[in-house]
Amino acid sequence: MMRSFSRYLRVLPLLLWYLSMLNINLIGRGVMAFHKVHLNYRIDNVVDVKNVYRTGYHFQPKKNWINDPNAPMYYKGFYHLFYQYNPKGAVWGNIVWAHSVSTDLINWIPLEPAIVPSKPFDKYGCWSGSATILPGDKPIILYTGIINKKPEPGHQVQNYAIPANYSDPYLRKWIKPDNNPIIKPTHENVSSFRDPTTAWFNNGHWKTVIGSKNNHRGIAYLYRSRDFIKWTKAKHPFHTKSNTGMWECPDFFPVSSQETSGLDTSALGDNVKYVFKVSLDMTRFDYYTIGTYNVIKDKYVPDNTSVDGWAGLRYDYGNFYASKTFFDPIKKRRILLGWANESSTTNEDIAKGWAGIHLIPRKLWLDPSGHKLLQWPIRELDKLRGKMVELRNVKVNKGDTVEVKGITSAQADVDVTFSFSSLDKAEMYDKKWEKFPVENLAKSICGIKGSNVQGGLGPFGLLTLASSKLEEYTPIFFRIFKTIDNKHKVLLCSDATPSSLNPNEYKPSFGGFVDVDLSEKKLSLRSLIDHSVIESFAEGGMTVISSRVYPTLAVAENAHLHVFNNGSEIITIERLNAWSMKTARVN
Fold first, then answer.
1. pLDDT at 45 exceeding the cut of 80
2. Tell me, which GO biological process terms does this entry list (predicted)?
3. Of 217, 206, 188, which is closest to residue 280 (Cα–Cα)?
4. Could you read off the pLDDT of 176-186 as tens digits, one per residue?
């Protein structure tokens, strides 16, 4: 699960040059995104460059490559996080299941890897999967094993692993029984058959879903088992959709239509809706729909209010992929974990000695409309808040910036509410924009209407990780448009284009529409800033965008934070709270 394909093509020559220096020949092997090639080498004695891009409170191991959060769960007083990890370098390859534990999902203790390739059923890789807690409080892991390198990216089967000692709250040792694999493809695509979900139980059977594809049709196959060992495939797919490509890391879970608390994965009831999420290999984004689950037929059907495909809803409209949720039985909440890859070049990743981070865990619940999910950083993050500064009722005229001083701007948490007196100056929404692919519409408009393009009601928001003279900055901003039927569209943008003077970085402009009632003429924004990542939550988690950035000047104590307005309508900072963030224990 690497970065976008277009960006990968840009860095491929550099990667091939580097591999040639190591006498590694990839001719004819096909370097592609995600699980494509095992690069079986070790990078030792990496030059310890100034690690200004290393995060302070996001999860990342001390060194090397990480990607998917595999099987988060709670067991005997600890949250457990398993994740895809390369112990031999800062590029994808040699993947094992690394393992860390935490009491708060923010500070982590690393343990030895839980699952590593060692047997014929996972000889060439231990890829993503999930954890399920069986009756008697017994955890079990389902994961994808690679039994042959061909056909590329590998012949895939599903295996299970169990703890060696159920009384160990750390679950340090795991056993891979010799009766693996327990699910093998028969008529399915053997090279696209992976990432089993957390299992749920009803009608006397355990159920799990495996992601796959047939040509360009994405498919989720459902399997049933009475004992979690012998599995039978359902006669029909759990869900399928044409022209969506490979469905990686599927996730299926219930949500309450009445309250914000989470539900166990096996929950049923009248006030329950269901969420089905896939990570689309072709687009590198996570998409979800909300719908119904036919318990008798074991089929999922999206609601007619959920677009099923590339134009559908996303957890995050930025750098976010291979996500996984789990039910927290202690605090009765559904938690979302996701991975953000690097936007720096492969050579820079190798020089850093690490690549990839996990974003802050988010609580997930159903919006009162029942049409989408809301998400918010877990409350445990607030414990890292240090010194606070605040602004109240500050007016920001067109072209003005207001610096937020007194905090560590490179490692901060900012929560702000903007207000405005009128919607009259909102720009007209240009119908010509409808020519853009609908799945990239918001992103495309953000690219055209950047923070430096003057408007009516907006752009206004934050200039994060800004240098002293604004040679570099990453703007997070709103822009409000008026439509021909006298309604309004609210756009949230996170624009990495001016983030760095380094011309080699991938600096996209991300965008998402915010479905919000503007009757109170207010918009809220919370941004988590952590050296090389910015997570932004609009309107209480209605729309979320995460960006990776690599400034050359606006680093560490040289980073600044501003509020700005580049629209003709005066904006008021009704309330702004900003905190310096302490460093978490993450390795």
1. no
2. carbohydrate metabolic process
3. 217
4. 999 999 999 99
Q: Cite the active site residues.
A: 68
Question: What do you get for the CA distance between the two ends of the chain, in Å?
Answer: 22
Type of residue numbered 380: E
* Of 15 and 489, more confident: 489
Q: How far apart are CA 344 and CA 569, in angstroms?
A: 37
Location of structure tokens 């999902």: 105
347/91 Cα distance (integer angstroms): 10
540 Cβ neighbours under 8 A, 6+ residues apart: 374, 376, 524
210 Cβ neighbours under 8 A, 6+ residues apart: 158, 183, 193, 194, 195, 196, 197, 220, 221, 223, 250
> Are residues 508 and 546 in contact, defined by beta-carbon separation less than 8 angstroms?
no
User: How far is C-alpha 580 from the geometric centre of its chain's CA atoms?
Assistant: 24
Alpha carbons 184 and 191: distance in angstroms, whole number? 11
Residue at 503: amino acid letter: P
Tokens of 93: 């390859």
Q: Which residues contact 269 (CB under 8 A, 6 or more apart)?
A: none
DSSP conformational letter for 583? P
Beta pairing partners, 69: 83
Do residues 377 and 537 lie in contact, with contact meaning Cβ atoms separated by under 8 Å? yes
Grouping H, G, I as helix, E, B as strand and the rest as coil, residue 218 is strand
Instruction: Check: CB of residue 341 under 8 Å from CB of residue 322.
Output: no
- List pLDDT tens digits, range 472-525: 999 999 999 999 888 999 999 999 999 999 999 999 999 999 999 999 999 999
Strands (E), 116-204: 126-134, 138-148, 155-163, 174-175, 193-194, 200-202
